[in-house]
Amino acid sequence: MRRAIELAELGPATGVNPQVGCVLLSPTGEVLAEGWHRGAGTAHAEVDALSKLPPGAAVGATAVVTLEPCNHTGRTGPCALALIEAGVARVVYAVDDPGAASGGGAERLRAAGVEVEAGLAADEVEALLDDWLFAARAGRPRVIVKWASSLDGRAAAADGTSQWITGRAARTDVHRRRAAADAIAVGTGTLLADDPSLTARDDDGALLDAQPVPVVFGRRAVPDGAAIRRHPHEFVQFDGTELPAHLAELAARGIRSLFVEGGPTLASAFLAAGLADELLVYLAPALIGGPRLALEDLGVATIGEALRYEFSSVERLGDDVLLVARPRDDRTPPEGAPAQQTTPSEGN
User: Is residue 261 annotated as a catalytic residue, yes or no?
Assistant: First the structure.
């Protein structure tokens, strides 16, 4: 299984499909073939491994796979059926496929007389597929809401200036986290006021290899000369209403994680809607005062209605502090909770 995990890591970590690896073993335990999934539209890990064997060579074999073989026909056929037709006798996998359409491969295998074992090295595969599994189970990307503020909760001075509240180490951390996200979101108010590039850059200002897809929320038009139009990826724009529907559309595009960068209106909208799965709060040891708060109205009328989070880490970054917090109830949505699941599984 650990070899299957190594193979899975060779596949793309972004997009609609998960990273999956497969090792085929002979009845006596020798490795017959290996395979992994290379991205949407390509052979799945199980089929990739089977393709390296002559007909009949997999009869009686054991398939060790990181994810439950799919039971869905999309751009490729069901892996469960491919294993059955190849004569595989046993399948061992780590994590169930949460897809409404693609799940059920284990049941199909058992019905065909194949021995199935689930849960081997599940924690390791859960960690590898963390964002993909979250998006598949929730029907939307994981949402990380970030803001930087002074100790008194101000995101800018009275005149609107905000660069730079935090120091270099904090800004470096932000760019590292931008690069790790599939997409980065901004509201049109912040876009028009600050003209952000929404790119991930190193300390010298050079673009990092990984760049998040820019997403704009709001009805106002993006100016022709806006910096976002020079982003390596074409931006996506939504009108700002119906956040759950917009997130579902992003999930359908293969966006597994969304980094909400600015500004107060957009951050507050995600928080008030209960759509923030992680908070990144960069606190600078400064006092600014004035009306430019980091957050706006959250719909909280009494202290009993406060949106409660718990700290998962506190980190010193130069002179600043990064507070990472997650909802107190459960940061991972329960499996199968949303009926409107939209994130395709490996079967697409």
Answer: no
